[in-house]
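Run Dynein axonemal light chain 1 through structure prediction, thanks.
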Amino acid sequence: MAKPTTVKEAIKAFETAKMVKSTEAEKVELWGQIPPIEKMDATLSTLKACKHLSLSTNNIEKISSLSGMDHLTILSLGRNLIKKIENLDGVADTLEELWISYNLIDKLTNIEKLTKLRILYMSNNKIASWGEIEKLQALENLEDLLLVGNPIYDACGDGQTKLKSEWRIEVLKRLPNLKKIDGVPVDVEEKDLAQEG
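Sure, done. The structure for Dynein axonemal light chain 1 is below.
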């Protein structure tokens, strides 16, 4: 079996392919490495100018080593093996978008530290309870939330239109500041129904 690609090797390949210095790049794309990256490491702290880091479609099991990325606003970790939202303290003051769909996350512990978060894409994870969704109430700036494919979403009727509209109302009751749920803008009628309930 092939040895996993290291972050250092992926950064070097990115620099070669894009003909840029990674330390100066605002968008660093390390997604879909072959063989996949399995571990985030301290090499990421060299990406001082990075605003958008893409590590999607790898085999990363744990979020780590983001300290020193003082300008990071978008972190893309979709299609990995991540089980927990953790080790984001180093970017908590700048991170506005977390793309973490298609992972193994079942709890939203520590999400409240991401006070600037506006967009959270976390479809196809393992979120099964309203208690976890309610942890998002601490995120006053959150306006766009993607939860399709989580057990809590799937429990609302397998795509039946009526039940999916009830799902949206239940989400809005808990998170009234949302402007978009599951890729669809929130309308005035939904907001009114959520306030009545």
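The chain has a mean pLDDT of 94.
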